[in-house]
Automatic annotation (TrEMBL):
Domain of life: Bacteria
UniProt key word Ribonucleoprotein: no
Residue ranges annotated for the Alpha/beta-hydrolase catalytic domain, each copy included: 292-582
Transmembrane regions: 52-70, 76-96, 117-135, 155-174, 186-211
Residue ranges of domain Alpha/beta-hydrolase N-terminal in the record: 66-275
Protein name: Alpha/beta-hydrolase family protein
Amino acid sequence: MTRATDAPAEPPAERPVADRPATLTTRVVAFARRPYWDPPNPKWVVRRWPDLTGYCFATFFFWLSLTPSLLPRPWIMQGLIGGITGIAGYGVGSLLGTLGRVGLRRWLPNERLRTRAWQSVPVVLLVVSVAVVVWGARAQRRLRVLQGLGESSSWHGAIIILISLGTFSLLLVVCRSVRLLARKLVAWFGRIVPWPMAYALGLTVCALIVVSGTKNVLWDRGFIGFIDHVSRQTNEGTEPGVHPPASPAVSGSPASLIPWSALGTKGRTFVATAPTPQELRDFSGHPALPPIRVYVGEHPEESGFTRAVDLALREMDRTGAWNRKVINLVGTTGSGWVDRNIPTPLEYMYGGDAATVAVQYSYLPSWISFLVDQERAGHAAQALYHAVHDRLQTIPAGRRPKLVLSGESLGSFSLDAVFNTPQELIDGSDGVFFEGPPQASRVWKQIVTHRDPDSPEWRPVYQRGRNVRFAQWPDIDLRYPLTTTWEHPRVVYLQNASDPVVWWTPDLLFNKPGWASPPLGPDITPQLRYYPIVSFWQTTVDLAVSFGMPVTHGHTYGTGACEGWAAVLPPAGWSPADTERLENTMAAINRRWS
């Protein structure tokens, strides 16, 4: 017998070979064969693969964002606006894709067709996107030349696409997170109420959470709170080269009722940079007076500005402002800033025989003030104007100073809010000079709306230019129309056709503005086109770059107030040669303080 121990040994069993980890190459090949991903759980929302229709529309909106607008855009801004408009396009495309799938439920693309679409469409769109970015760079260079910036601008095409994709992806995650929250709420309400009511309740609660969280937490307590804190600290500082004035004719001096510490940063700069009698004498060759500058800092706890205006009147009494030839009420911007190019030329023209008065209503940046302090701007100007106007009526006409109104941007908006109609503005003073009025300016909007039929929106002619005239190049534009006598009192608006501060409005989302239709402004490229949603965001980005443009472009007006004041209220014997000398003097002053 054979023993069991003598049986032939069985071959050892083979060990199972572990799956080799996929290499980068194999993963790329696998993705190329099937360039999309279906989540293992159909309820997934945030990590779901993008919708192809939405992707196509997002790319198309990105292309539209590359078209030129009012001003040349830096490449980083173009990347951001590309992502923002792309997510808007994705929303439109996804909605259309969903409606299409519901309507064509019987016909849905099979796996092969879906694969081929994802293999070909993104490649085609990427190639076209590169070509459109190159075209956009050329259009931006042409616009730079048109507005005096030269061609030296490099658009980083690849970085623009990457920034746009990053912005788009971030916004897509946020939107899908909101959608996931809505689905969770609908499902929770569906356990206790019928489904139609559950959908209504879920969507309503989700909207309340998003709106309340965005406004109260992110906006008011977050962003606005941070800006408020920073701006408040800035308002307590003093700009370099600015020192307390010695002249008793200005606020903040030792003789003033308003201490230097109460003026705020912009107020301190305003009173400390007033021209001296010697500087005025050097310009005119005649004896000069120290110009009066009254400035009241912000009183945040006061809504009616009663105390601020009362303090301004007492300061005017102290300085003898009622005995000067001209009283200039100038509106401040959000931070309390007064552009030196507006009051200073008037002081030079009148040899210092002028008083400029301003009341600060906010310390926030202008665009933030426009959103949250619009009413305070109007209230401050109304209180100041009515108080000064009423006091002037008590002075005999023969000794009464001329009253003029002036302001730039929010400064013009605040004084515009004093009046209800263009005729009230004309009759309300002895002259008006405004620069870059915002779209929300009530009287300005009436003038533009009721302009003469043959005039464009960017250079309106109102009642044949009898009292009101607009200019981008004031030495030329204010002469027209030649067939009409320019009567007093005069109102001058300096308004650049490429100034987004003038043209920005939420209506741009879906309504084509008049300035985007031919004939276009002289510094607007013929390639400009209006596109819903896209043009709104383009103009919004233009706001951010409008303050650094050359003079007569964007929101930069330079020494245009010299021509403006020479047209509105010139002193006796004033000549065009005097205006030219004044412009050179103001240019030198600006260089000294730049």
